[in-house]
Amino acid sequence: MDPPVDLKVVKQDILAGIVECEKRCLLQCTKWLAELNHGLADTPVELRGNSAFENVHSGIDASEYDSYLLAKSYFLVREYDRSAYFTRNCLSPVPKFLHLYATYMSKEKKRLDNMTDSSVVSSVSHAKDFAELLSILRTEHSKDSLDGYCLYLYGVILKKLDLNDIAVRVFVEAINAEPTLWSAWLELAPLVNDKRMLEGLKLPNHWMKSIFEGYTYIELFQNDEGIKIFENLQKNGFGKCIFIPTLLAIAYSNKRDVDRSIDIFQHLQSVDPYRLDNLDSYSNLLFVKDMKTEMSHLAHKVVEINKYSPETCCVVGNYYSIRSDHYKAVMYFQRALKLNPRYLSAWTLMGHEFMEMKNTNAAIQSYRQAVEVNKRDFRAWYGLGQAYEILKMTFYSLYYYKAAQQLRPYDSRMLVALGETYEKLNKVADALKCYQKAYNVGDIEGVALYSMAKLYEKQGETEKAIPAFLKFCSDEKLIADKASLCHAYMTLGNYYEKIEDLDKASYFAYKCLDYEEMKREAESLLKSIANKRAHKATTSAAATATNPSGAGKSTEEEKPTPEGVPVETYGEDMEMDETNLSKRIEVAMAEEEEEQEEEAGTSELAESSDMPEFHMEDSYDVNE
């Protein structure tokens, strides 16, 4: 839906949300709402007597207020056990939520601290850790006594336990109760599997719904829909909210419009120079464009801002990666994971580094952990496919490439990888379908047509291979792999030489002369073409010499001459070399002289009957 025209209503909702989240120590949600509020700074709101600020102390019983203040102060300095202890007997909504939230944060912190191997996301069930908390929340939920914030916490725990269907229902309840609780929307987004499911969710008719839908479309890689929503939000007054252009930059990055995405990130850097959020995505784009200078500046800048944040470690890791220092890159990605074991970018990028280091097993482990964190990370699935392809485990490779392709159905790289795997498994029809679809959706790497043509060639279907090779060669400037281009030219040259289309054959053969690896073969082909042309010329000349005027012979008598036995024998015996032609003529002339000496008494009729054959050879000599 479109956001309301009256932005004052939006800002009033945001202020009320900030107050409620701040009371409950939901710090990330408070930060997000505050950034959104700052983007609407041009919209004036009367602060004195504002109803949002009248609710600062609501939800806290007067008798529990002192305990609540103490517990809140402990929570803010990460002393979660103390915070939970001092609110253990509180019954009013805010202190009660703080008690449950502090208990959850304490369990989560201890679990992460006790992880012996920071290179593995804990695969142990969380059921034991959260059993008591889950029991309390389940009981309260059955009595319908949970408010929107407690419902959000219940949903988070259900999601941790992989009870996703129930979690979705609980998050929708929480959102309907508290529409400005962005954390609930954010937790719900990864659980939405497709557009159909998104449209089926019973969400409130609130301006936050537009932001959620745009965000979820981009998560689902349906970038055009996401871009449309966010551009509409920008037109309706949200243009200065930093979250909106950030997601637009990510959407353009997904669409491989790298330059546009980089421009947006650079603009965001000028607006908010100390912001670290999403800088890992920005550094990935700089890596793709091989912008080493910009990467170096960014790495030094983030280290100065906060040396020990996961985003900083990720940017520095990319900086070392672009310099091909893969060991140091891995070290920084591991450091990022010690700070946040569920930091998706670090797992995926570390997998890429291990692949560069030829450490396939470590790469597989990293990619698997990335998939554990986010099952929609197509890069991790694709990386697993590549790793198993290197290990020659083709069926495993096929499984992971299929998973990547399902996440990115219109990405030609996934389709080409799938096609190559089917080709290895001798599933030719499936491979050809993949290559054709990769070409139809827009071949990013420009290899789909070549792979398809090669497969046709391998199957002996030359007539189908040639159109594919021609399309592949149509814009040679865009083709990065010059070896493939050269092979295509050579194949086309040989094909046209075979079907006697010598002009086209010559054109493609000359193209091959630019490539050292095919130069000799191209020269041989050009020599063959030249000799075929010479052969045609001499055949034509012989026909003319045999009957210059064409008188005394019917059309039927003239036709066999170019295709008669002497010409065919000549064509077969020749090695397509001009020196052989001259030798043959000399031998023929010598034989003629010997026969004339031996058969001096032969009649005039016999001599005249032998002459045309040698006269024909004489005509070749003259024309050559």
Task: State the main characteristics.
mainly alpha; 0% strand
Topology (elements, then pairings):
Elements: H1 7-23, H2 27-39, H3 51-54, H4 65-76, H5 80-86, H6 93-113, H7 127-142, H8 148-160, H9 164-177, H10 182-188, H11 195-200, H12 207-219, H13 223-238, H14 243-254, H15 258-271, H16 279-288, H17 292-305, H18 310-322, H19 326-339, H20 344-356, H21 360-373, H22 378-390, H23 394-407, H24 412-424, H25 428-440, H26 448-458, H27 462-473, H28 482-498, H29 502-512, H30 519-546, H31 555-558, H32 560-563, H33 565-573, H34 578-598, H35 604-623
Helix pairs in contact: 1-2, 4-5, 4-6, 5-6, 7-8, 8-9, 9-10, 12-13, 13-14, 14-15, 15-16, 16-18, 17-18, 18-19, 18-20, 19-20, 20-21, 20-22, 21-22, 22-23, 23-24, 24-25, 25-26, 26-27, 27-28, 28-29, 28-30, 29-30, 30-35, 34-35
